[in-house]
Every structure is written in structure tokens, then in C-alpha cells.
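User: I'm putting together notes for a lab meeting next week and I want to include a structural view of one of the chains we've been expressing. I don't have a solved structure, so I'd like a prediction I can at least talk through. The sequence is below, exactly as it appears in our construct file.
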Amino acid sequence: MYRASDDAALVRTAEAQVLASYAALVQVVARVAALNARLVEGGVAPIPLATYTPPPAAVGVPASVDLLQGQRAYYAGEAARLGEALRAMESVLAQRARPVAPLRPGPRAVPAAYVFAELSRGAWSFFKIALFPPFTMLIAPFLLLPWYAGPLAGAAAMAAFLVVLWGVSLAVATKRLRLLARGEVGTVLQKSEAYSGVRLRNWPVLWTNGWDISLRAYSGLGSVTTLTVQTPRGRIAQVTVRTGPSFRGVVLVDPETGGGLANCDFASAPRPDARGEWDPALPGRVWAAACFSVVASLALATATTVAALVSLDLLAF
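Assistant: Thanks for the context. Below is the predicted structure for the 317-residue chain, given as C-alpha cells.
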């Protein structure tokens, strides 16, 4: 009888511990849910959060100390995991909340790193698409077709393609560099969002929060944001941004032409420093994309030159 009484007391103690552990988890979940609302508002991916049920008991299985201790350990582990993620994201938000100096009026100097990134943006846009397998199968035949007419024809076609590719890159970069040198930060007067109809699943997209731009996975429908912005000089402009998550970044508008561009559409991911000038540091992903574009273009140009020289030698022979 005494043993049965002791076992019942142990079970009641274990039940109390499970309830306390679950209550602590509920408090952490509430804090995470509140933080997730701030993260989404700030353009940051939220912390994955599940729905936790109260301490259950399996149907037909009497409660035991081992069963209850397992539940307590699970709830405590989840509370610790979510608490760690909570503290990490709170530090991220605190860092992003640090004030950034306003961008000083133009004309302003554009760092050489920005010039390099913007010049290679057009080429990177092509290579990024060409390396995606479904598009590779569509693009490759058009690039290889001239070679069937002969090495010289193939080399000439490839050379023309590279000239056009980098010519377009130069034209686009010229407009963007002018905007970086003279653009003014626009005040958003109107914002309308619509879904693009493209569904993304764990696709890397740019998340914006003011001047901060981060590359994160996104699942959901793509969005098209139309912004009506006004410059400090009173000019009104329309800017369209195509992203996955909602756009919460900054828009630069040319005070003379009225053309504008969102900060996430620049290859250089521009951001002012403490003096209001452009911070010359580039994210690693920008360096990787720009360098890859240059190396890939040089490789194609070298292969084309070698093929042309070999064909000329064969013709001479």
C-alpha cells in the first residue's frame, strides 16, 4: 500500500513538472510570435514556429513517471531552442535599429567597388539564367548553332554576343551609376502591392529593411510593388519593384530625369556610411557574382579566340 502511495505521489510531482515546463514553453512561444510580427514588418524571415499541445496522455496508457519526464524534457528542450533563436533575432533587430547617417545631397563620389559591381550586373543576369538547367537547354542551342557553319562563323557569333552582352551591361550601368551619384532618397507617398502569380519555394530572394539588404530563402507568391515617391525637390516618380517578400527598402530618384530605382535592384547593394557617403564595402555575394561574370566572359572570349586561330591555321595548311 505504501509503495502504491509513493508511486502516485511521484506521478503527481511529475505531472506538476510537466505543466510548469509547458507553461514556460507557452511564454516563450508568445514572445516568439510577437517578435515574428516585428520581423515580417522589417522584411526579415520569421522564426519557424509550431503549435504545441498541452501535456497529452496516450489513449489507454496510464500516466507514468517515465512518460511524464519525457514530456517535460521535450517541452524544456523546445523552450531552450526557441529562446536561443529569440535572443539571436533580437540582436539582429537591435543591430539594424542603429541609426544610419542620411545620404548627403549629390553629386557624390561612387566607390570603385560599386562601379565594378554595376558594370558586371548585366553579364551576371545572363549567366545566372543560363546556368539554371531548364534555361541552359534553351540557350545552349542558340549559342552553339553558328559553330555548325564553321569555326570562323562560330567565333564571330560568340564575339558579337560578348560585345552585345557587355555593351548592354555598360549602358545599364551608366544609368545606375548616375543615379548613385546624383539620386535623392524618395519619400513614399503611395504603395500598392499585387501578386505576380509566380510561386516560389525556398528560393533565394532579397529581403529589404531600409538600407539593409539580405539574401534569404523565401516561399510564397512573388509580389510586384508600385511606389509613388517624391524627392526633396518635389519631383514625383513611379517605381516598380519585383520581389518575393514585401518591399521595405529605399528608393533613389534622379532629380533631373525622374527615373528611380529601389536599393535592392542595384547590384552594389548601396548603403551610406557614418558621413553620409556611400559605404565602399560590398557583400560577399556581390563580389562572387561580379567576379564570376568577368571570369566566365574571359573564358568564353579566350575559347573563341583559340578556336578562330586554330581554324585559320587549318585553312592556311
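A couple of points you could mention at the meeting. The first strand starts at residue 184 and ends at 185. The CA atoms of residues 29 and 82 lie 7 Å apart.

User: Perfect, that's what I needed.
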